[in-house]
Amino acid sequence: MTLLKAEDLRRDYRMGTESVHALDGISFEVEAGTFVSVMGPSGSGKSTLLHLVGGLDRPTGGKVLLDGRDLAALDDESLTTLRRRELGFIFQFFNLLPTLSAWENVALPLLLDGKKLSDTKPRAVGLLERVGLGQRVDHRPSQLSGGEMQRVAIARALVADPVLLLADEPTGNLDSRSGEQVLELLRSTVTEDGKTLVMVTHDHDAASTGDRILTLIDGKLVQDDPSRAKLSETESRM
Length: 238
Ligand SMILES: Nc1ncnc2c1ncn2[C@@H]1O[C@H](COP(=O)(O)OP(=O)(O)O)[C@@H](O)[C@H]1O
Ligand SMILES: [Mg+2]
What we know:
By secondary structure, the protein is an alpha/beta fold. The protein has helices spanning 46-53, 76-86, 102-112, 117-130, 146-158, 176-191, 204-207, 228-237; strands at residues 2-15, 18-31, 35-39, 61-66, 69-70, 87-90, 164-168, 196-201, 212-217, 220-225. The protein contains 8 helices and 10 strands.
């Protein structure tokens, strides 16, 4: 089943009289239950693509279809509700609220959706256990390592049981060991929990964790190679 479809997606930014084509006509489909990596150098349009796909920004041309629904047909309020209930976001700098504990950060999307704080605690704590942070539920972000903060962010992204996870350079600010843990965890959300994941990275090793790699250069899709991940796995054993 196709969960996500991008059709001739464009995003121009006007800079004075100049127009920057951050995305220059991108089309692809993502099957439910797959882990897709989006790779490309800095400035190639990766974050722009993720923002459009996640309804955080609107395209200047083309369409995003989520489960057959055109995001352009939704007003801002419906888009916000869709993001909160159906999507999970993971960012490079974690975006945790510093005054909330780990479990409250995880519960936040449910609170914003109208749930009572006390009703959300068991699920939030359960997810922190799932990401290996059962001993950290009352810690504040400042009391956690980078890898731990990112695992809290992953638990938060999962709390509403979304269909699609979107991650922008999730290992970009982590040491290699924490980065590997985060990649393993993301991999398991797809393999074990059946989530669909689109992960942006400029790191080839991280990208190889995916089932498929889309490569962006200057806002264009230059490569879409489903076998690439498996190939490099073979290469690394030789
Ligand atoms: N808000 C903006 N205003 C103007 N130009 C932007 C804006 N956001 C991104 N760009 C430009 O669009 C291009 C793609 O940016 P981005 O999607 O952030 O790339 P990446 O995530 O691959 O590094 C870059 O040339 C960048 O400078
Ligand atoms: Mg980026």
